[in-house]
Amino acid sequence: MAVEARQKTEAGKEFVTGADLLIEALVEAKVEKVFGYPGGAVLPIYDAMFRHEFPFEHILCRHEQGSIHAAEGYARVTGKPGVVVATSGPGATNLITGITDAMMDSLPLVIITGQVAQGVIGTDAFQEADVLGLTTPITKYNYQIQDAKELPRVINEAFYIATTGRPGPVLIDIPKNISAELTVRNESNAIELPGYQPNVKPNALQLQKLASLLEKAERPVLLAGAGVLLSDGATYLQEFVEKYELPVVNTLLGLGSFPGEHELFLGMGGMHGTYTANMAIYEADFLINIGARFDDRLTGKVANFAPGAKVAHIDIDPAEIGKIIRTDVPIVGDAKTALQALLAMDIKKPETTEWVTRLMENKVNYPYWYNRSEKQVSPQWLIEQICEKSKGEAIVATDVGQHQMWAAQFYAFNKPHNWLTSGGLGTMGFGLPAAIGAQLGRPDDLVVAIVGDGGIQMTIQELAVIHERNLPVKVFIVNNEALGMVRQWQEEFHGERYSSSLLTQNPDFLKIAEGYGIRSVLVDKEKDVPGVLEEVFAYDGPVLVDFRIHWKEKVFPMVAPGKGINEMVGVKP
Amino acid sequence: MKRIISCTVQNRGGVLNRITGMFSKRHFNIESITVGESETEGMAKMTFVVNVEDEHKLEQLTKQLHKQIDVIKVSDITEKSVVARELALVKVTANSQLRAEIQGLIDPFRGTVVDISKETMTIQVTGKTDKIDAFILLLKPFGIKEIARTGVTALLRGQQAKPYVAEVNSLTI
């Protein structure tokens, strides 16, 4: 039915389509950006966006995976939920990787997928996929709309679920007939979620237990994860740490929750973390974990992780507490709220001078190290240069692999919410679209995508979005003509059998950039790096730089798989 | 160890899939599930019999259940005073000569004959799992043709022998 022919019911109520209700609900939820891709089953939704004159900006990425990673990047740097729209069948299945990624890294997303009309659901209709079934294990919650009148409530609930408690992706599957057909407005969008009451406020008794253990601690360590960032608690963390002079270790995703150049910062822990951070955890007698989930890349062999420590774990998700590491003080609550509560308490400062002094010595004696490359660009030095030339203030997005670890090791994140990386799922192809989402979310900040020559080829089509919107994203390819981390593991653990890991037939990235209308430059000598970086950062538009590094560069130090964090190799040159 | 977990859930589309999916994703072993309406409209009661390795796994299981948006309440009722029942339908080979003998076995188990054909009898028996196991064992020599069991469903008794233990959902941590 043409919308021009809108009618009123006898009671004077206006008829609207389900899609209209959806758009109105998104506006009500204060959505500013929607990352999407149209298709048959979402035609009524796209038509409604058009008719409503796009009350939010719609970003047409060039693949659904690009849309969802861009939404993740947007969510990570703004703290607002990322909104994604995709069509039924392949549109929805192309989102699967990104949904899983957001679930693993606790990013708030609201995903709207089209579905075939209700009358043909279950008949293997054209572009039909069981999206509800497919996404049940990888969403915080999902819905399929049965009646258009539910839409305002469901959208309201979806945003509430996605953004509260431990954030995560929520998917709403909307059959085409529901978005197309006329209905009347349902005034109530009241949330009906009796089973969902996330506990934000930590238990005072448990906080007291933490306090008394802290007072007695001789070798305390504070482990800060992404929970500190998601709760916006970084300033309170710093205050707490300085008040009690606690050494701090970050998880990969927690980088930026504590200033990277702070003297009490020991670095990242885990597989490619610093020797100092890992040994501090190994020797600690009290470990306070705030907002980290003891991922296996952090803990290494569990028996060797903080073996002599009492453990206090603050997490908004009760199921994370005690999941991997036995916990003496379980504290369910929001990291910021817990830190505020701890700051308000009267806790005697533990005597830790000797311990901290020893750790400071370790910091000096066991820094990250690398050998300068003579012929090509040293990747570690490159990251240091990027950090220096961007004053440590850039938003940095990465793919997954060696360049990701070098970025985590050598870029000092002094501010929160500037670090975008796929930690839990380890998704190649994440970096470029995530950088796009970040730039759209924070248009005035410098955004750098540090990607590998392997990863960028998984989502390289999103260069089109950068060009189309003239987003000043700087795309730095750390090009070793290999799937570097795979190659490194093959060298270390598989007898140098480089099975399918060498990319000797890479395309000409400069020409690809040129094809997308983006300036590009190749850098294969170290002496050119500082000048090019200065030029690139001074330029108010997108640039792609192809940095050539040696294919045998490796990430060190390392906790080998199955080993404990006290058994790092490659600690010294 | 075997545990009985009782769960009240919001009866929304896909809830059973979400919960059994969580069990399979996290490698929890379910022995039986029963699902049915509860005393409150829109709420369903699920009863799981699960086999877990240790207390740690059990804690994870209840926490993961409780984390589900649709789950209102989770109780591990294994240690509590409960009424737990299962129903079984057993079809045995029984010609006219054997019927009287089988009837004699049914009575102590308070079973009922719910169907008779020329060659078979179908008996319904209700009770705790071990009683039903024993009953089936007893009928085996006659030749069991088919069995259908519902799995355990359970309710707390009105009066608990011990003081009421805290529910899993009212986490004090």
UniProtKB/TrEMBL annotation, chain A:
Keywords for this protein: Amino-acid biosynthesis, Branched-chain amino acid biosynthesis, FAD, Flavoprotein, Magnesium, Metal-binding, Thiamine pyrophosphate, Transferase
Gene Ontology CC, one term: acetolactate synthase complex
Cofactor(s) needed: Mg(2+); thiamine diphosphate
InterPro entries (UniProt xref): Acetolactate_synth_lsu (IPR012846), AHAS_TPP (IPR039368), DHS-like_NAD/FAD-binding_dom (IPR029035), THDP-binding (IPR029061), Thiamin_PyroP_enz_cen_dom (IPR012000), Thiamin_PyroP_enz_TPP-bd_dom (IPR012001), TPP-bd_CS (IPR000399), TPP_enz (IPR045229)
Occurrences of domain Thiamine pyrophosphate enzyme N-terminal TPP-binding (ranges): 17-131
Keyword set includes Ribonucleoprotein: no
GO molecular function: acetolactate synthase activity; flavin adenine dinucleotide binding; magnesium ion binding; thiamine pyrophosphate binding
Gene Ontology biological-process entries: isoleucine biosynthetic process; L-valine biosynthetic process
Thiamine pyrophosphate enzyme TPP-binding domain location: 399-547
Enzyme Commission number(s): 2.2.1.6
Domain Thiamine pyrophosphate enzyme central: 207-342
Similarity annotation: Belongs to the TPP enzyme family.
Protein name stated in the entry: Acetolactate synthase
Native source organism of the sequence: Oceanobacillus indicireducens
Gene name in the database record: alsS
TrEMBL record, chain B:
One GO CC term on file: cytosol
Signal peptide start-end: none
Keywords for this protein: Amino-acid biosynthesis, Branched-chain amino acid biosynthesis, Transferase
Location of the ACT domain: 4-79
Pathway where this protein functions: Amino-acid biosynthesis; L-valine biosynthesis; L-valine from pyruvate: step 1/4; Amino-acid biosynthesis; L-isoleucine biosynthesis; L-isoleucine from 2-oxobutanoate: step 1/4
EC number: 2.2.1.6
Entry GO MF terms: acetolactate synthase activity; acetolactate synthase regulator activity
Keyword Amino-acid biosynthesis: yes
Reactions catalysed: 2 pyruvate + H(+) = (2S)-2-acetolactate + CO2
GO biological process annotation, one example: isoleucine biosynthetic process
Function: Catalyzes the conversion of 2 pyruvate molecules into acetolactate in the first common step of the biosynthetic pathway of the branched-amino acids such as leucine, isoleucine, and valine.
Protein name: Acetolactate synthase small subunit
